[in-house]
Design a protein that fits this description.
Layout (H helix, E strand, L loop, with lengths): L1 H27 L3 E2 L2 E2 L2 E3 L11 E3 L6 E9 L8 E13 L3 E4 L6 E4 L6 E7 L6 H17 L16 E3 L13 E4 L4 H20 L9 E6 L4 E7 L3 H4 L2 E2 L6 E2 L2 H9 L5 H10 L4 H9 L1 H12 L4 H19 L10 H12 L5 H14 L3 H8 L7 H14 L1 H8 L6 H11 L6 H12 L3
Parallel strand pairs: 11-12
Antiparallel strand pairs: 1-5, 2-15, 3-4, 3-14, 5-6, 6-9, 7-8, 10-11, 12-13
Length: 445
């Protein structure tokens, strides 16, 4: 008896969490949430589901009529775009048929069969492969921000199937729709769509538009082409009817409000907030792309750092380290507090920017504090004019040939002299003061 109650409670909790995980994307994507929805049985035969049919939602999905706001990358023309979404429905995943080229048999992989999933169906608002890829990337960001999934396409945590159709200029009706499957990255989605668009346009131009049929095609990465998999089924082939073994999903306003209050700041809101700080769109897209990076940036600002300077450090040296070491920003030993201290130390003249880079590298790898590293290695910037002047005099005296060339018109040699002074000072000379004194000395009669 106790075991049954515990099992029932466990099942209830799982069901509660699964429904709440379906409501969160609805709220994030501006949907109309259905207060009552139902499950339907898709009676089309599924050889990769043990029971032979799939449970889904047909006429009353859990949410409908939403949209995604996103900013296209600067390298692709930039600009703000809104893509409509038709519906979000819950269903169970299928298994996977594995076909062998060396034999006439097929195998069935049931590892994912029956696992609950959420399907998001977009409006036909995208016109290029890059738009579709960016739309998919934004959905990935959202599910990661919500903590619903890692969203990794390579692991099957997020999968995208695309429908492509073309129509002659001036025609209002959409052309014949072709579905493409077997894409495991957003770059593959981009290439597959652009290839399929070109393939269909070519058939139109050659007077063979009738060869564009409703079908499912697969993307072949090696040949960079799509090829026919099977004829596409229509709604009539699925033979939907209400699922007799599952009750309706009934929601309340209080339940929706509870979930709404628990929602984090989403990518679109974060981008607009960063944009209002005066950051460039390149900065905005980078910082908002990863919630962990955004959180690190925000924490750095909370400790008093300037937004643009913090963005420069995160997008420059820190991002390079993350890429080279293949780690995330929450795995490094540098803290937002110490990054803000580093920025402040450079800004107030305690250390130079060059020394700042050296300190940053040590803090990322080993941790510690900016103050301790400066004291331990005696890195305080030299700001005494007399000390810098003495170093400048020595460098000029040691390089008479370069001095003669400078005064003959090769003024770019000032950089050479500055570098030599920095070498003598072990990178600690105040660069502004150094260049002022150096300029006066080099141009003296």
């Amino acid at each position: 008896m106790d075991m049954n109650l515990n099992n029932n409670a466990c099942k209830y909790t799982n069901a509660y969490n699964r429904v709440s995980h379906r409501i969160k994307p609805g709220l994030a994507l501006n949907y109309e949430i259905s207060m009552t929805s139902k499950f339907d049985r898709k009676q089309y035969f599924y050889p990769d589901l043990p029971k032979g049919y799939q449970i889904s939602q047909f006429d009353i999905p859990i949410a409908k009529k939403g949209y995604v706001d996103l900013d296209l990358p600067v390298e692709f023309g930039g600009g703000h775009r809104k893509f409509g979404i038709i519906r979000v429905h819950m269903e169970e995943d299928e298994g996977k048929l594995v076909h062998s080229e060396s034999s006439s048999c097929s195998q069935v992989d049931l590892n994912r069969a029956g696992i609950p999933l959420l399907e998001i169906v977009s409006e036909p608002d995208m016109r290029t492969g890059i738009e579709a890829a960016e739309y998919g990337t934004e959905l990935q960001r959202i599910v990661r921000y919500l903590g619903m999934s890692n969203g990794n396409m390579q692991e099957g945590s997020l999968r995208c199937d695309v429908n492509v159709s073309v129509r002659p200029v001036g025609q209002s009706e959409f052309g014949t729709k072709v579905e493409i499957k077997n894409m495991n990255s957003f770059s593959a989605i981009n290439r597959a769509i652009d290839y399929e668009i070109s393939r269909q346009i070519l058939l139109h131009k050659e007077g063979q538009a009738d060869q564009i049929v409703q079908e499912t095609r697969l993307w072949d990465e090696s040949s960079q082409k799509t090829f026919t998999m099977r004829k596409k089924e229509g709604f009539a082939d699925y033979r939907y009817f209400p699922e007799p073994d599952l009750p309706e999903v009934v929601l309340t306003s209080d339940y929706i409000n509870e979930i709404s209050k628990s929602m984090p700041e989403l990518p679109e809101a974060k981008r607009r907030r960063y944009e209002n700080m005066g950051l460039s769109m390149q900065d905005v897209l980078f910082l908002a792309n990863d919630d962990n990076i955004g959180h690190f940036f925000d924490s750095t600002l909370e400790h008093g750092a300037d937004a643009k300077l913090a963005a420069n450090w995160i997008m420059g040296d820190i991002a390079a380290y993350l890429k080279d070491e293949k780690v995330s920003i929450d795995e490094i030993k540098l803290t937002p507090l110490e990054l803000s201290e580093l920025i402040a130390s450079i800004k107030n003249g305690t250390i130079s920017g060059k020394i700042g880079k050296e300190i940053l590298a040590e803090l990322i790898a080993k941790g510690g504090t900016v103050k301790a590293v400066i004291e331990e290695k005696d890195l305080v910037q030299i700001a005494d004019p007399a000390a810098i002047e003495a170093m400048v005099d020595k460098v000029i005296a040691d390089n008479p040939k370069q001095l003669e060339q400078y005064r003959a018109g090769k003024t770019k040699l000032q950089g050479f002299f500055a570098g030599q002074v920095m070498k003598v000072s072990k990178g600690k000379a105040n660069p502004v003061l150094l260049n002022k004194i150096l300029g006066e000395k080099l141009n003296a009669n």
